[in-house]
Amino acid sequence: MEATEQSSASMPSDITANPLRTRNFALLIAGLGISLFANLMLRFAMSMWVLDETGSAAAFASILTASILPTILLSPLGGVVADRTNRRTVMVALDALSAVTVLACAAAFAVTGFNLAVIATMQVVLAVLDAMETPTVQAALPQMFRSHGEDVMRRAMAVVNVVNQTSTIVPAVFGGVLYAAVGAMPMMGITVVGFGVAAVVECFIRLGAPEREDGGRASALDDLRAAGRFLTRERPHALQLVLLCAALNFLVTGYAEIGFPYMVRTVLGFGSEAYGFAYGLVGVSGLLGAVVGGRVSKALSMRRFPVTVAAFSLTILPQALAMALPASAGVRLAVLTACTCGTMVSITLSNLIAVPAIQMSCPESMTGKVMSLALSASMCAQPLGQIAYGWAYGAWPAGRVLAVTFVLTTALLPLVAKAARRF
Fold it and tell me: Does position 194 have pLDDT exceeding 60, yes or no?
């Protein structure tokens, strides 16, 4: 059966003038989008429920923070599974397990009512399952499109990014209205249905089991060691690119996720309505970057990587000047919002260059493991960036923090240029 699926997935009839217009890719995108929407809708509902019941936004923030550690530790396991098992089967199983988890927790709420421990358990389990699914999807894309070249890979990644951005924006826009209308428990029901539908859709993806060079004899630990040796000895330039992406994630997470709301709400004193509008523009800019990236994918070779990172650094400088020099709150808000939108576009384009380059540098048997290690490095950088920038904004004026961010980003450019020349 697996051999039949493998051959079917690579038949000439599946190769069209536009390789992305295939049944397999459409099903993958549909399943991913539905799953992401369900996950983010649930997270929104739970955050509102915790806030209503406890009055503390810090309580839910603590739950999400606690879910990061097991996610980082178990994400490499997701890469091992993705390289050992049919990736369609993995995606179906993970979405089905997510549906079962939410259903079991809904049953617990029906008996006990609001229970913070149950919410914490549910969020940790879902975070782990999501961390295992991400490298699986990232490994499935090269399996589908490796033969079509890096340009098609970038276009496929652009579509995935559009789905990610849309699935983030839509729950934020409609989640509040839906929560006010029906409450948390019905939204959990919507989530269960979403995960279930995603699993059913993914059942129809036709992907064969990945080829293994070890004949299936190596253990999971052996697989991870092999991936580590591959990055450190055979593809050190790919490892350097992974570390550079983690460094960029550190800076973007800290300055955008921590700094932007802090400056708008606390430093400038704007209300939730103004912040919500500005945040919406930033989210749309990420979507725009993914769409533009898909349109100009042929131009997004590795030699453009330093250009996109330089563009990112240049979006920070006007913000540093606006926050350091005398200006009205309205002018500062306009500069912060416009430049952060520019940041989202430039970073999205950077990802569309770097991620396919890493994927294409890996053999089929290594893709899942390498991408899971890259994901773990990026996820490690995220809380570190949040902590560092949280401290920095509390200790220094906002203009100084932004100026240091500009200097650090500019200092990365020689390393980025050196890494780009090796691909």
Answer: yes
Instruction: Give the C-alpha distances (Å, rounded to integers) separating 315 from 51, 319, 322, 341.
Output: 34, 7, 12, 9
Average of per-residue pLDDT across 101-108 = 95
> Cα(20)–Cα(9) distance, rounded to whole angstroms?
13
Contact 120, 63 (CB under 8 A): yes
Tokens of 410: 């500019």
The one-letter code for the residue type at 98 is S
- In contact, 254 and 386? CB cutoff 8 Å: yes
Give yes or no for a contact between 252 and 340, defined as CB atoms under 8 angstroms apart. Answer: no
Tokens describing residue 413: 């450019």
Amino acid identity of residue 195, one-letter, is: F
Q: What pLDDT sits at residue 277?
A: 84
CA-nearest of 6, 3, 39, 37 to 24 is: 6
Which DSSP state fits 325? S
Amino acid 101: pLDDT? 96
More confident residue, 393 or 13: 393
Q: Determine if residue 56 is left, alpha or beta; phi over 0 gives left, psi from -120 to 50 gives alpha, anything else beta.
A: beta
DSSP code of residue 13: G
**CA 348, CA 264: separation in Å to the nearest integer?**
23
pLDDT band at 15 (very low <50, low <70, confident <90, very high): very low
Contact 94, 39 (CB under 8 A): no
Query: What distance in Å separates the CA atoms of residue 354 and residue 420, rounded to the nearest whole number?
Result: 9
What is the per-residue pLDDT for 176?
A: 67
Which residue, among 257, 240, 230, has the nearest Cα to 366 in the 3D structure?
230
Cβ atoms of residues 372 and 75 within 8 Å: yes
pLDDT band at residue 160 using 50, 70 and 90 as cut-offs: confident
Q: Angle 96-368-359 (CA atoms, 0-180°, nearest 5)?
A: 130
Three-state SS string over 111-167 comes to: HHCCCHHHHHHHHHHHHHHHHHHHHHHHHHHHHHHHHHCHHHHHHHHHHHHHHHHHH
- Contact (Cβ atoms closer than 8 angstroms) between residue 132 and residue 75: yes
Most confident of 6-10, 243-247, 259-263: 243-247
CA atoms 269, 272, 274, 279: torsion sign: positive
Q: What is the pLDDT of residue 7?
A: 39
Taking 70 as the threshold, does the pLDDT of residue 262 lie above it? Answer: yes
